[in-house]
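Self-study notes.
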Amino acid sequence: MQKLNAGFTLVELMIVVAIIGVISAIALPLYNDYISTSRDGALVSSMATMEVFQEDLLMRTGAYGIGTTADTSLFDNVGWDPRDSGKATYVVALVGTTGYTVTATDNSGYVLCRQFPGGVACP
């Protein structure tokens, strides 16, 4: 009588490990790009909302507001409080007399800077 061996051979296990390695090598960079894109989207969305408040302030007072969300001076000056309060810090600085820059830093240390009006990346 012949005894049947049940299980996987070493070659089969090595093939599975190689397939998992290839899938991981492809998926990890794509996942990191996805996270970066979503992080940009959240910060840019908050900046666009703040732009509306800045334009309103410009119409009412003739000047843009400056400040930071870290010490609530941005809320006091502009009236804007971000939805992601506590998850990111926003700093607004004037650029000449016709614009301002917004620098956003999230909790992971990721920094995004935009110059307004226009919303273009900071030089």
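Second protein, same conventions, sequence then structure:
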Amino acid sequence: MSEQVSFGYESVEPHEKTRRVGAVFSNVAAKYDVMNDAMSGGMHRLWKDTFVRRIKPREGEAILDMAGGTGDIAFRLAESGAEVTVSDINQDMLDVGIERALKRGIDGLVWSRQNAEELSFSSRTFDAYSIAFGIRNVTHIDQALAEAHRVLKYGGRFFCLEFSATEWPGFNEVYDAYSHKLVPVLGQAIAGDADSYRYLIESIRRFPPMPAFERMIRAAGFEQTKVEPILGGLVAIHSGWKI
């Protein structure tokens, strides 16, 4: 029996998930940031600000921002003077990011189409690796974590911002109702695509709980791992070091 992976609530073959996820992000690329504002009430901006503060980018550091397509994290990282490489498997997302950078007058970023599971970069290249709201869409998360560990220098740090399940009593039920019923409606109204946003919500539900994901990060070789829940774990910042 062939391997099956999750695509939202469906189980599909790995190559099929990769293809479908690619189609989802090609469909939503143009409205991705507008929808982030609509879905989170603008809170994603605060989460990303906190995330970058935790990374503590420094001038001259080499940082890989994986699944960074539209540039939201990279723009923040670059303010420190860090040398940022923005990578994404989806060229449509990268094209949106490049256009946004041009409009803002932000230069010096390197844009590189990459599969998180098979990075073309040499081992021990980067001082830090960041991935925000992207790792749950990777077909083989363990392979992406192993690659993150490989391309980091010794002493390098890994940071991941991802949705999870809140531990606040009652809040999960409220959020479930909102996300399953209203987010696809918003997706249809703003981006003309309910199905893609239905998948994105389902992918959150299928993502491992915070303790399980932390174990995956440790299994990839990272040490001093840490989880910082936000809104009780609705969103979490995961981190670890290559020592």
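Instructor comment on the second fold: The first strand starts at residue 5 and ends at 7.
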